[in-house]
Amino acid sequence: MWSETAEGRKMIQGISREIVDQFASEELELFDDLVQEYFQDPRPPDSSSKPKDDPLGFGLSETLIAVTPAAMAMASGVLNYLTTDIVKVAQEEITEAVKEKIKALFNSSKEDSDQKLKNEIPPLTKEQLEQVKKLARKQAIQFGIKPEQAEKMSNALIGLLALK
To answer: Among 7, 63, 101, 121, which residue is least crowded by beta carbons within 10 Å?
Structure first.
């Protein structure tokens, strides 16, 4: 899957950093370590077991182990969904794109046609945005984020996607 490539991981990490900066900026010092832990084991924490000890000794471990992995899971899940969805759409639209490319080969304005094809990346539909938000919220909750906070984080993720 694309999210498992270096480029995909870099994108997931970048999106996650922005979410963590917005919702738990105190984690940024440990962000890289928490990211590595997430990539080694991306499963949600076992909510039935209690933490053995507080690695910082300040009573903040619950926050520190919750937001970054949740943000990583949100970004990863959403990017996987979008990649899969975009591939489906691309397969459905490939015939039309091939026709346009063939027309461009025979037109004198080939460069204009090529540029037009490269620039036509449609925005996400309302349904896709709703699905992304639902998926992101679910991922955050699985990683121990409270529903209200998960809602805010999923809205922030949607905002980040809209700005990219």
So the answer is: 121
Residues 6+ apart with CB under 8 A from 154: 74, 132, 133, 134, 136, 137, 140
Angle, CA 19 vertex, CA 134 and CA 22 arms, to 5°: 125
Helix axes 126-142, 147-163, angle to 10 degrees: 140
Radius of gyration of the chain (CA): 20
pLDDT digits (tens, 9 = 90+) for 70-85: 999 999 999 888 888 7
85 near 128, Cβ under 8 Å?
Answer: yes
Chain-centroid distance, C-alpha 59: 29
pLDDT, one tens digit per residue, over 11-31 is 999 999 999 999 999 999 999
3-state secondary structure (DSSP) of residue 104: helix
Rounded distance, CA 38 to CA 50, Å? Answer: 19
Q: Per residue in 60-71, is it b (16+ CB within 10 Å) or e — as a string?
A: eeeebbbbbbbb
